Amino acid sequence: MPLAEQARPLAELTAALADVTQGEGGVTVVSGGVGCGRTELLHALRSVAVRAGYAVLRAAGSRPERDTPGGVLGQLLRYADLPDGHRDALTPCLFTPGADGSVRWPPDQATGAALHELTAALLRIAEQVPVLLCVDDLDLADALSLHWISRLVPHLRAARVLLVVAECTTMRPTHPRPHAELRRHPRYRQVVLEGIAPGDMATVLADSLGGAAARTPSADCHRITGGNPLLLRALVTDQRHAEATSTGTPATGPVVARAYGDAVLALLHRAGPTALALAQVLAVLDEADTHPGLAARLLEEQPAAVTEWCRDLAAAGLLDGTRLRHPVGRAAVLRSLDAPARRALHRRAAELLHAAGADASRIAPHLLAAAPVDEPWAPAVLDEAARRHLTADRLLEARDCFGAALAVCHDEGERTALGARLAATARLLDPALGTRHLADLAAVLDGDLLPGRHALALARHLLWHGRFDEAATVVRRAAEQAERPGADPAAGAEVHATRHLLAAIHPPVLVSADGTGGDPRVRAATALSEVLARGPSPSAVAAAEAALRGMRLGRSTSEWIVCAVTALLYAERIESADRWCTHWLTEARARKVPLWEAELSSLLAGIRRRQGDPAAARDLAEAALTRVPVESWGVTVGQPLSHLVEAATDSGDHLAAEEHLAVPVPDAVYDTRFGLHLLHARGRHLLETGRADEALEDFTACADLMRRWGCDQPALAPWRTGAARAHLAWGDPTTARALAQEQLDMAGPLPTRTRGLTLRVLADTEYGTERIALLTEAVAVLRTAGDPLQTAGALADLARDHLQAGRTGRARTGLATAARLAGRCGAGPLAAALAAEAETLAPRRGGSADRTAVAGPLSAAERRVASLAADGHTNKEIAWRLRITVSTVEQHLTRIFRKLGVRARRDLAPALAPDAARPVPTPRDAASAGRRRTERPMSGSGPDV
């Protein structure tokens, strides 16, 4: 460079040069670790000497020439930089080191004479001009050259010669004789080069990087380089390259890349083969507190020597204790090993650690890296390490350990258990991964080789993928094992909990209603089954809450936690469900278990949708399908997909709803409660896009399944309100009123979301004061239930009724409030329509409101009446065709005239053109079209476990 930290040592050496001009020779030894800047310092000193008129001789020791007698002496003669008039002074001394007829080691008579002549020639030059003699890497110099230097030192007391030698202190032995002679000189100096101090790092970075240094914390740079100048130079190179190639926001920390890794390898090669071998061993072990004895046994060296070498490499900035300072450096060192050598080191490390009784978590990484290691003790070590990884939620590591153990295990019973653990672990990462092991586990089940706890895990996996009959069979066999003499008492509770879980997901399964006992999992699943069978109740809510308080999120509880939160959701305890689900999702994210994150994100999406926040529901459902892909969800995919469809429908994004409905799902989805959600969501989408006949088929299919399974509860899937709206679209208020009233009776008197939705639909079957009373109650109930989006819809309906009654101010206020609520909920199209509708009611310049037109689309029933009236039909004819009363037709026409801003029937046809919508069939048309069944046959009662 020269580097800023070389200023002090360069000043010391320059002062020694000045002493030489006064006729006082000197000896200076520059020492430091590998990469500390010795060579740059000597180069800077030579430049100063040349400018001052010195004769400069330079050489450097090296491993290739170490065994060549006179190698360094040859360089001194060849690379002499002499002033004019002295260039031929050393010509008679030129010789070829080690060649026949030249110098030899040990020195013979001719060699001794040649060395004497070289000394004499050098001293003669010194009488004319001062001389600087530089030898770098003295520790690598050949023996003959060291012999000459030792003999030269006594002559330097009165000669104008400055001898400067540099040596590397990193894992290189010193030569005692030359050092003894050097130290005897009266003007002996030693300059020790240290690394860059932490306090100086910021200055060096500023000089090297300029403004980019502010984004590169100096403390991090010192931690990575240990203050080694060569490593810092490489780090600066990586940083500059990153700055030059970055297309986004610059990195805020040090960029450690290829230049740094190459520098680490270069330093190790310069330090010698022993240093590289030690670094390779430490890179393989990769432990912060590696005992020198282990590294010594791998190197077949003495522990004391290895301890000293580690200190040297640490002083050089390569190690932090016994570990390479950065993963990039470790990776570079590992690349210097070929694959067989790397595996051999790992295998030997595993064997030594096992023999020493080391922990399984220390041995397992080496077994994995050396795989396969077919030793009798290897499967047990890998199995133990995998269990510890599972406890710490390190799922990838656990899966790898189970897989490696299975590959080298030869005991059939142990192989079966390992396969079950591997399948369960893979399922937590991605349920699709676990299916690869299902066939093997199902095969051993027939041989009664699968222990009960693993069999029940298999049952849950089969259940996830819609293999309900097989899951029920597995549960029955596990129950038989649990009843045998000497069986684990906990096995019975595990069977009971799994049976209830199966029933909660696949309602056709028949189980007893007993949810008592101490196992919170049983209470959780029973609470959900009770809500599904009998609707919300204080006992079910209490059981769910108690179950949640009694469980911790884990591999044996996650499904039941979801059951308990779902029970609260179906019981319309939305706030409680929200609180618990958010708590568990936060923990799942912190522990980074993909399956738990996905399940709980999907569940929270349903909660958010019932809280009138379709945007948040969409984000959560999409996050769930990102964490676990669609194809891995099995039959539970109906849950996140239904949330996406419902949220898109709530937001008015019908194209997105269509795309979500186009995602293929397993047929078995419709044998679960998740299929009910999907059918209801599709029905709502069809209804909102004008396909009331198709929507009614989905609502009817939903009703058939819920009745057959004994879980016909509106909080699960309010199919009656959907069906009622479909009948209203057909102009059949009588059936619609009956369905809505039935659901209202089931909802009960509490101010729940279901009651609010039902009141709103029931209001659509009434007119006048009765309708206003129902809508007023619906608004109050929905507000209390905490669904602002549905509140906005009910409020808008109520505002329009106020407008018909001549209360324009209340109508405008209601519409404006509804528009704001819809906007906050992310329902953009609805918010815009309501805002525009409110704007038409704003007072005009004359101070009165324009009551001739009310913005907003016609309802489906209004469109049918308007279309028939525009075609010239009388009120009686319209009533007969639509099967409604003449009074109802008149009320429809009143609203139609006001919405379209027309005064007579003849104005209807032109006014209807902009409001053209897809025609909805009349009851006669629908009846003639027949009924479309669902695309798959519905299941029967299901297996009894």
Fold and architecture overview:
The structure is a single chain. It is built from 46 helices and seven strands. It has 945 residues and is mainly alpha-helical. The chain has a five-stranded parallel beta sheet, with helices on both faces. A hairpin with a 2-residue loop joins strand 6 (319-320) and strand 7. Helix 15 (339-355) packs antiparallel against helix 16 (360-370), helix 26 runs antiparallel to helix 27 and helix 43 packs across helix 44. The longest helix is centred in the first third of the chain and has 20 residues, at 109-128. 51% of the residues are buried.
Key terms for this structure?
63% helix; disordered C terminus; five-stranded parallel sheet; 945 residues; mainly alpha; single chain; two-stranded antiparallel ribbon
Briefly summarize what is shown.
With 945 residues, the chain is mainly alpha-helical. 63% of the residues lie in helices and 4% in strands.
